[in-house]
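Working notes for the structural subgroup meeting. M.R. asked for a predicted model of this chain before we commit to crystallization trials. I am recording the input and output together here so anyone reviewing the notebook later can reproduce the run.

Input as submitted:
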Amino acid sequence: MSETLTVTEVVRHFADYVNRVAYRRESFVLLRGNRPVAELRPLPTGRRLAELPGLLAALPRLDDAGDFAADLETVRSEIARGKLVDPWLSS
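Returned structure, recorded in token form:
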């Protein structure tokens, strides 16, 4: 919920209100003649959706995906044949 302030009040203590927005993430609705005319609020943090393709392109590539898939298939077949033994099981 935003606190309402007169424009005059904000002008008199502008640096204080900007600090409250910046450091406490507070929002204020500014009134002139008891009518809302503006809002003083923190900018949204995070990234824009338009940046997603660039972020995905910057991720490291899994160059040996074929080797990884072969390893998975080997492990799955050994599990299915009962060749793998869990060393943590108690006898």
